[in-house]
């Protein structure tokens, strides 16, 4: 049976890999992203892959005042949404953020506040329909602040804490709230980074996301070994951790 699936940030590498898999399962898709041309190309590809219906909506998600219209448009097309995946974001330049307050606040708005805005609106809809899955891509970076990326980590930690409370609130409404915490992923956003054994492909992450939604998981570290890595990092005493160059 086809599901109605909303993917916000549909042009990101992980989102594209995920929506391709959902398209091949003949689902109905509603795709949201900033770049309308790229969005249209992705939508056409999804139709070719087997999606029953594909709708698109172009929006810069930092325009928080437009979020209400976005959610209303989604529910006009699909009165019931089975799955929403929030996958938009950027990878800030930490040294640049340290020198520029406006840039820091802008990155926190993209990676934190815009997601919280969407979640606040979506939660009310899901609570009313008493079913469905809300899945959000955060990051292992949100588990502990590190000097190399604490602006990004702080925004993702904000979202993860929000998701914890939302999960608690929506539990009685039979709504899954999934926090997706990828480690290093080989995407255009990380093109400048040297790759190694800990890096994963978007397709690996996408497959694990779909499996986690089916399994009704609360939190997904992906690939799986990041759970152990982050457990160790979280366990390091602060008096030692603050001296490390991570």
Describe the protein's architecture and organization.
This protein is α/β, with parallel strands linked by helices and 246 residues long. The protein has a seven-stranded parallel β-sheet with strand order 3-2-1-4-5-6-7, sandwiched between helices. The chain has helices spanning 13-24, 36-49, 67-77, 94-99, 101-129, 150-170, 202-214, 226-235, 238-241, and strands at 4-8, 28-33, 53-58, 83-86, 133-137, 176-182, 219-222. The mean pLDDT is 96.
Largest sheet strand order: 3-2-1-4-5-6-7
Order of helices and strands: EHEHEHEHHEHEHEHH
- The total strand number stands at 7
**Fraction of residues in helix:** 40-55%
- Please state the overall shape, judged from the principal axes of the Cα atoms: globular
Q: Structural class given helices, strands, pairing? A: alpha/beta
Strand content: 15-25%
Distance between the termini: 46 Å
Number of helices: 9
Poorly predicted regions are none
Oligomer: single chain
Most strands sheet: 7 strands, parallel
Gyration radius over CA? 18 Å
């Amino acid at each position: 049976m086809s599901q109605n699936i909303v993917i916000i940030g549909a042009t990101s590498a992980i989102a594209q890999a995920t929506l391709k898999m959902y398209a091949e399962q003949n689902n109905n898709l509603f795709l949201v992203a900033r770049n309308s041309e790229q969005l249209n190309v992705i939508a056409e590809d999804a139709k070719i892959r087997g999606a029953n219906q594909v709708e698109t909506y172009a929006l810069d998600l930092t325009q928080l005042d437009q979020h209400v219209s976005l959610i209303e448009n989604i529910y006009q097309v699909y009165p019931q949404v089975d799955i929403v995946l929030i996958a938009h974001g950027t990878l800030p330049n930490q040294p640049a953020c340290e020198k520029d307050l406006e840039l820091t606040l802008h990155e926190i708005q993209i990676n934190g506040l815009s997601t919280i805005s969407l979640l606040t609106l979506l939660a009310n809809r899901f609570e009313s329909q008493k079913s469905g899955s809300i899945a959000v891509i955060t990051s292992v970076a949100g588990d502990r602040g590190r000097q190399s990326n604490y602006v990004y980590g702080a925004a993702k930690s904000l979202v993860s804490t929000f998701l914890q409370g939302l999960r608690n609130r929506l539990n009685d409404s039979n709504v899954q709230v999934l926090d997706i915490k990828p480690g290093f992923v080989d995407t255009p956003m990380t093109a400048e980074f040297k790759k190694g054994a800990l890096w994963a492909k978007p397709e690996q992450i996408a497959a694990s996301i779909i499996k986690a939604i089916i399994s009704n998981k609360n939190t997904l570290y992906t690939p799986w070994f990041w759970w152990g890595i982050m457990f160790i990092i979280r366990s390091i005493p602060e008096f030692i951790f603050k001296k490390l160059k991570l």
